[in-house]
Amino acid sequence: FINLRLIPQLKTKIKMIDQFVAVIPAAGIGNRFEDQTPKQYLELKGKSVIERSIEHILNHPSCLELVVCLSMDDTWFNELAISQDPKIKITLGGKTRGESVYNGVKFFEDKDIEFSHFLIQDAVRPCLEGKDLDKLLELSETEYDGMILGFPVSDTLKKLDCKTNQIIETVDRNNLWHSQTPQLFKKDPLIRALNQATNGHEFTDEAQLLESIGANLILVKGSLYNIKLTYQDDLKIIKLMINSGI
To answer: pLDDT tens across 27-67, in order?
Structure first.
């Protein structure tokens, strides 16, 4: 039984996590984005997308180290000023997001450092706010195996025939939420889930991976602004938000 609960708003202050390590899968080339430059390296008001996606995490006092999982052909990351931060490490990513996250987790498993949680963040969510990161960290000392950010679905949802685009049915949107990152997981459950992952099955986020082993997960209401850069239209929205100081 998967226990995925929702906390719309934290009522009390909970002791915050002591130390966590972060994994940033950034080996993708963005086929859906249609641009020669990988979308994580596009510039947004003087900073790259990936820099904006990780800055609150990197600067958090509870962040011990952060590993960026890069493509073997990556020639961009080492040109960024942030790459010189002593907290930042680099490892080889994989052909899929799941492979990159696995490599990032293995990177820390093989290091002689003590920490209690892994934090996974998309390289292309440049509008993360520090207060939403704190919402996750405030739950780290609870019984939950994982804590993720999300936002409720507001649009009417349609299920289509993928070949013809004909509408099959309208899907009830009650209790449906957009899953976001960062996602925070206790060390041992995430490692166990990765080791038990079914060969050939691609999980779209790490919460889904932990669901597969029956982990106790909680969803925390985040921000509508914390969107993922996937399509060109997303970039227009993100630029508007950053330029306006949101």
So the answer is: 987 555 556 789 999 999 999 999 999 999 999 999 999 99
Distance of CA 36 to CAs 32, 40, 47, 48, Å?
11, 12, 18, 15
Residue of 76, 86, 67 lying closest to 37 (CA atoms): 76
CA gap 67, 62 in Å, rounded: 15
Q: The whole model's pTM is what?
A: 0.88
Cα distances (Å, whole numbers) of residue 194 to 37, 70, 101, 120:
31, 19, 9, 13
Which residue pairs from 172-179 have beta carbons closer than 8 angstroms and sit at least 24 positions apart in sequence?
A: 176/152, 177/6, 177/150, 177/151, 177/152, 177/153, 177/219, 178/150, 178/151, 178/152, 178/153, 179/148, 179/150, 179/205, 179/207, 179/219
| 72 class by beta-carbon count within 10 Å (0-12 exposed, 13-18 middle, 19+ buried) | exposed
